[in-house]
Design goal:
The complex is a heterodimer of chains A (427) and B (159). Chain A is α+β, with helices and mostly antiparallel strands and 427 residues long. Chain A has helices spanning 24-33, 159-163, 167-174, 196-203, 209-222, 264-282, 284-292, 338-351, 359-372, 399-426; strands at residues 5-8, 13-17, 40-44, 53-59, 62-68, 74-78, 93-95, 98-100, 107-109, 114-116, 140-144, 147-151, 181-183, 188-192, 234-240, 243-248, 294-299, 303-307, 311-320, 323-333, 381-383. Chain B has 159 residues and is an alpha+beta fold. Chain B has one domain: Nuclear Transport Factor 2, Chain: A. The chains are: A alpha+beta (427), B alpha+beta (159). Chains A and B meet through β14, α5, β20, α8 and α9 of A and α3 of B.
Chain lengths: 427, 159
């Protein structure tokens, strides 16, 4: 059995074989074992608030429609006509009663039922009596605190069991507003010329923060968010099931709710009010954790929720071993006032996204790793050992990434050895 | 404001040249004291920045920080600086009043780094004013005519 991940506890060394970032064969295994079997994020319920709302989403390589039908139910429909295959919807989002394939004009309700086709007299009377010509629906769709996931494996465990210890961190995000949370319009769609797993790592990697994002911290300092001794302190955790988190303090302002001088007295008043409300609802300790701590959460394999100077939701999928497509969303508290929202969005754009002061540098780091992997034949292993010597690894250690790789190893190594055995039997 | 299209074109070409030569401090001085630099979401150029996720929404202070950051060695994505080339075409005056003038032009900006050549295309919308007897940019809005930032992946340069 080929080993892709080596954990040597005795010598506190953790290695990942670099072929996992470059081999087409590995990507094929990932498509089968990860992107067809894990729970994958499709969207937030706030994106489709009204009956008939839909957004077009690519999830696990599939073309889906994330819809709220006229019955109010949230569904994921395969965006492919049951007649000859064409997409039935080409708009990225909207509200509709009917999806109509332009090729032969078959029409489906927003619940997926086939309701119209020209030349009906050419089909048998029992045509579609069993519903087999309705738009196919992803059987497994479950949601937790308005975060909606799909799974293409009908035998998968429930979403809640899958999320396990990660639920606690989703709660800390979802609890930030009494009115609930909402995703802003117009997600950022970009890409990185690097393997997708590098972004899973990077999103929960505090170790790279200072060297990679020095210029960002310099800008935060000009707003009164100067780095002090107590900043960037915290823990890194393997949450099990491949999920990972870092939870830590930081110098930047948080909309909910850590004040910085640039926000002025008015800002301070608002932050105090928010904190007070949270204290009344959840007690002082939990309110303190919600407002003052930052969290970078990775839900295996490819959902990142970073609750930092703003909140971003991010998913990403491999197109090739060395190229991924990324979608970034902003999550905000519903009903917050205009000035508050402006501060939140300024915070977001300053750090996050393809036009921010930090994300492009992450993008560059990942692309340079991918370039470095051209040397894989001679330089074979990545080192992810930092913090193994500590009983409780710190947020700028690498324990949380080891959590991702432990699960990855379980999935991929088992599958590749199974495939190998099958080949040997056939051979 | 009485100004010819010729004079505006000269001003825009000068801006493009400063950016291509990475003279970014000088670029920032082209903006008025209330100047802003915006890249609205792709496909939604008039989006409300409170409801939609912009790509860039810089006020005067932040656009200067953007310029200064990109001159640092630690702005890793642009170290060493990529080679860029900006072509501005179809310059047209769309509105003119006593105090300001609105101008649009089409743009094609190329960025090359390592083995990749990326292109950015769209329409630049300027609001120009006179401040201290000099022509200044009050607002520069970059309307990208792309489907997404794929495969470009980022807007690390100033468009």
């Amino acid at each position: 059995m080929k080993k892709y991940v080596v954990e040597d506890k005795l010598n506190s060394e953790f290695l990942v074989h670099r072929s996992v970032f470059t081999e087409q064969q590995i990507l094929e295994l990932e498509k089968k074992e990860i992107f067809s079997k894990c729970w994958l994020y499709i969207g937030h319920e706030s994106e489709i608030p009204k009956n008939g709302d839909f957004v077009r989403r690519k999830v696990g390589g599939r073309n889906l429609l994330f819809t709220r039908g006229s019955d109010g139910a949230v569904r994921a429909l395969y965006n492919s006509c049951t007649h000859r295959g064409a997409l039935v919807c080409r708009e990225n989002k909207g509200n509709t009663k009917v999806f109509r394939c332009f090729y032969h004009a078959w029409s489906f309700t927003n619940k997926g039922e086939l309701v119209g086709m020209p030349g009906k007299d050419g089909f048998s009377e029992t045509f579609n009596c069993n519903g087999s010509k309705n738009l196919k629906e992803v059987t497994r769709l479950e949601s937790y605190r308005e975060f909606v996931f799909v799974n293409f494996d009908n035998n998968a465990i429930s979403l809640e069991d899958y999320l396990g210890n990660a639920k606690e961190y989703l709660d800390l995000v979802a609890d930030q507003s009494e009115l609930g949370m909402e995703v802003l319009l117009d997600p950022q769609e970009y890409s990185v010329r690097a393997n997708w797993k590098l972004l899973s790592e990077n999103s929960v990697d505090s170790y790279h923060g200072m060297p990679t994002h020095k210029t960002y911290f310099e800008i935060v300092a000009t707003r009164g968010g100067e780095l002090s001794k107590g900043d960037l302190q915290g823990v890194g955790l393997d949450l099990g099931n491949g999920h990972a988190v870092v939870e830590y303090t930081a110098p930047w302002g948080r909309p909910v709710g850590r004040w910085i001088p640039a926000w002025g007295e008015e800002g301070q008043k608002e932050i105090d009010e928010i904190t007070c409300k949270l204290e009344n609802k959840f007690g002082k300790e939990r309110a303190e954790r919600i407002t003052k701590k930052n969290r970078n959460l990775l839900i295996f394999p490819n959902l990142v929720i970073n609750d930092i100077m703003a909140i971003t939701i991010r998913t990403f999928y491999p197109i090739e071993p060395g190229y991924m497509e990324v979608t970034g969303y902003a999550l905000a508290a519903k009903g917050e006032n205009e000035e508050f929202r402006r501060r939140r969005n300024d915070n977001f754009l300053e750090f996050i996204g393809p036009g921010g002061f930090a994300t492009p540098d992450d993008n560059e780091a990942l692309e340079l790793c991918q370039e470095g992997f051209l040397n894989n034949q001679e330089v074979e292993w990545n080192d992810i050992s930092k913090g193994m010597i500590r009983e409780q690894p710190l947020s700028n250690d690498e324990e949380q990434m080891r959590g991702f790789w432990r699960k990855y190893n379980e999935v991929i190594s088992n599958s590749s050895s199974k495939n190998l055995q099958e080949e040997q039997v056939k051979g | 404001m009485n100004i010819t299209r010729q004079a505006i074109e000269d001003f825009l070409y000068m801006e493009a040249e400063l950016l291509d030569e990475w003279k970014l401090e000088e670029w920032a001085t082209l903006f008025s004291s209330k100047g802003s630099y915006l890249i609205p979401p792709i496909g939604n150029p008039n989006a409300d920045s409170a409801k939609s996720l912009y790509l860039v929404n810089d006020d005067r202070a932040r656009l200067e920080q953007r310029a200064l950051r990109l001159l640092k060695k630690e702005a890793h994505v642009e170290y060493p600086h990529s080679s860029t080339l900006r072509n501005y075409n179809n310059v047209r005056i769309v509105d003119q009043n006593e105090n300001s003038i609105s101008v649009k032009c089409n743009f094609t900006t190329y960025r090359s780094k390592r083995a990749d050549l990326d292109s950015f295309i769209g329409v630049l919308e300027y609001k120009l004013v006179i401040e201290n007897e000099e022509l200044k940019i009050e607002e520069k809005k970059v309307v990208l005519k792309l489907e997404s930032l794929r495969p470009q992946g980022k807007v690390s340069l100033i468009l």
